[in-house]
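Re: [ENG-882] Designed sequences occasionally contain unexpected residues at chain ends

Forwarding the minimal case from QA. Structure tokens:
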């Protein structure tokens, strides 16, 4: 389809209580209609916790819930969750289609300043999802700081960043989202949480939906729960890439 109706949910999270978070989002998603893609924050079932995977909901419970929401809304629905696998814990971005197909991306860049790399396994590849004619790149929080990993190889139209990005570095979050949009000539959606967590970290949200030209299409008020909506246009994207083909001059070598 030529347009994509995108919703980003900038919301608080209940610390380490998966079922409480699902009940909260049950109520919030019940009012959403006519959307194509709905994005929840990073670790939306627990908050960003190193111990989350040890007591988190099983992946089947999370994907079943996402499938239920996808069927009810007719949209692709997703966010990341702490998941315990046979090999170890991962910070996994799950996106589920109304028909039940599950897409998975495991966070590649683990936030060592919080010892995430000691508690979770890093993903080993990028994932591109095709949905209603759009190519979508899912990414998680700290991935945003690594432009080479996010670089478009003319293989995506929209990048999604879900996060628990702390208030103290909100300016970095906003600047990096804008940079990723401009340098990759792609739509960018950043979904960050608000509120405080069990480790006394505070989150201002500052979620964004940004056009390939760097125009802010929707922005969440700092510290306030918000539902951000934007209609993305494939015609606008294609026309801009054709009129200003900077992507043709991007380096093609790999590091």
């Amino acid at each position: 389809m030529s347009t994509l109706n995108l919703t980003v949910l900038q919301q608080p999270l209940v610390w380490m209580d998966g079922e409480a978070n699902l009940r909260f989002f049950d109520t919030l998603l019940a009012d959403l209609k006519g959307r194509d893609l709905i994005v929840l924050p990073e670790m939306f079932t627990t908050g960003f916790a190193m111990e989350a995977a040890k007591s988190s909901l099983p992946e089947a419970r999370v994907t079943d819930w996402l499938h239920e929401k996808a069927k009810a809304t007719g949209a692709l629905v997703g966010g990341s969750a702490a998941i315990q696998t046979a090999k170890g814990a991962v910070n996994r971005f799950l996106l589920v289609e109304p028909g039940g197909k599950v897409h998975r991306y495991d966070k590649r860049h683990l936030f060592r300043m919080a010892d995430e790399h000691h508690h979770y396994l890093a993903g080993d590849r990028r994932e591109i999802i095709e949905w209603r004619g759009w190519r979508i790149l899912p990414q998680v929080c700290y991935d945003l700081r690594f432009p080479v990993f996010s670089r478009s190889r003319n293989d995506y139209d929209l990048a999604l960043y879900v996060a628990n990005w702390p208030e103290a570095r909100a300016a970095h979050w906003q600047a990096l989202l804008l940079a990723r949009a401009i340098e990759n000539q792609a739509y960018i959606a950043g979904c960050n949480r608000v509120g405080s967590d069990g480790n006394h970290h505070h989150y201002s949200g500052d979620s964004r939906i940004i056009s390939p030209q760097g125009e802010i299409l929707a922005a969440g008020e700092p510290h306030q729960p918000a539902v951000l909506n934007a209609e993305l246009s494939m015609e606008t994207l294609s026309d801009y890439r054709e009129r200003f083909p900077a992507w043709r001059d991007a380096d093609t070598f790999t590091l």
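QA comment: On inspection the terminal residues look reasonable. The helical segments are 18-29, 52-55, 59-73, 116-119, 147-150, 170-184, 234-243. Proposing we downgrade this to a documentation issue.
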